[in-house]
Write a structure and sequence with these properties.
alpha+beta, Arc Repressor Mutant, subunit A, D-Maltodextrin-Binding Protein, domain 2, eight-stranded mixed beta sheet, two-stranded antiparallel ribbon, 40% helix
């Protein structure tokens, strides 16, 4: 087998092995499944070992395949990165950048502006955004990176913490007029709360100036959608939690009021997630740009909130974990 073909087949094997699917790998590579399958079979013959176990329903790596994938993945990633860097030197970062992001209100309102500005600066990069709830399959769905508000469970993923967004408690003036306004965290136990998870109760951890209090709250309505919970709160159904930047219009319009404004709940982290540290130029340029701009945009939006004790979106050090 010639050296150029060997390197090509190594890259094909890595694509199939990571996705554990010939059809997904073929779609990502833009080649027929039959051609891809034939190249992998020839590659296994050249190596002299079976690297993949194939059935009609499942594709799995053999022990040899697992070991070989671990050895050549970095080589293939570095080769791709080198090629991208050479291309970037010639005409700047380019290519198709596929991003997954949660369907949260702040994404629609603030991340969209960051992406718009990035796109104007990088005319050779086509940005595609999918709004998808967690968890996201970065490899299987061919994403270059994901924006996440929960740290992924997969230890192999690379996670960069970008910012933290303050959370607070909010209720409609009509509800507070009827039920009274809480003055201490313990008062929440006698109030009607829109529970953010399935069930009739939840445990909230409230903090103020180094003091932390755990309170069990409950109510007749629960939902896992922040947007729907906000609607329930505006309708006077109880107290809800929310990112402070998501309810600034409701606060300014008098539809909601902040409850216990001196107390906060754990902040919502914002992460960028990738499958490797060896990123192509298009991904690196976006992460570098968006890391600075997104934290600044969120912080600015919080400062501009027209209500007392406005929330803060805090930039954080660029922490990477595996």
């Amino acid at each position: 087998m010639s050296q150029p073909q060997l390197l090509r087949d190594m890259a094909l094997f890595v694509e199939v092995a990571r996705r554990k699917s010939f059809s997904q790998a073929a779609a990502a590579l833009g080649m027929p499944i039959s051609s891809l399958s034939r190249r992998i079979t020839m590659f296994e013959s050249a190596v002299g070992l079976r690297l993949l176990d194939r059935t009609t329903r499942k594709l799995a790596l053999t022990s040899y395949g697992e070991a070989y994938l671990a050895q050549i993945s970095r080589l293939v990633d570095e080769a791709q990165r080198t090629f991208d860097d050479m291309t970037a030197v010639a005409k700047g970062p380019s290519g198709f950048l596929k991003i997954a992001a949660p369907p949260d209100f702040w994404v629609l309102r603030h991340l969209s502006g960051v992406i718009t500005e990035f796109s104007r600066r990088h005319e050779h990069i086509h940005v595609h955004v999918d709004l998808k709830p967690a968890p996201v399959d970065l490899v299987g769905d061919n994403y270059d990176l994901a924006v996440a508000i929960e740290e992924p469970r997969e230890t192999s993923l690379i996670v960069r913490k970008v910012a933290e967004v303050e959370n607070g408690m909010f209720a409609a003036p009509s509800y507070l007029a009827e039920r009274g306004e809480p003055t201490t965290p313990i008062d929440l136990e006698r109030h009607q709360v829109i529970v953010p998870t399935q069930g009739t109760s939840a445990l909230w951890s409230l903090s103020r100036s180094g003091e932390t209090v755990a309170i069990t709250v409950g109510g007749p309505i629960s939902c896992n959608s922040p947007s729907l919970a906000r609607r329930f709160a505006v309708a006077g159904q109880g107290i809800t939690t929310a990112n402070v930047i998501n309810v600034d219009d409701d606060l300014a319009g008098g539809r909601l009021r902040r409850v216990l404004p001196d107390w906060t709940l754990p902040a919502t982290p914002v992460y960028f997630v990738t499958t490797s540290r060896l990123l192509p130029a298009k991904s690196r340029s976006f992460i570098d740009f968006a890391t600075k701009r997104l934290a600044a945009v969120l912080a600015s939006a919080s400062r501009d909130s027209n209500h007392p004790a406005a929330g803060r979106a805090r930039p954080v050090e660029n922490v990477m974990t595996t």
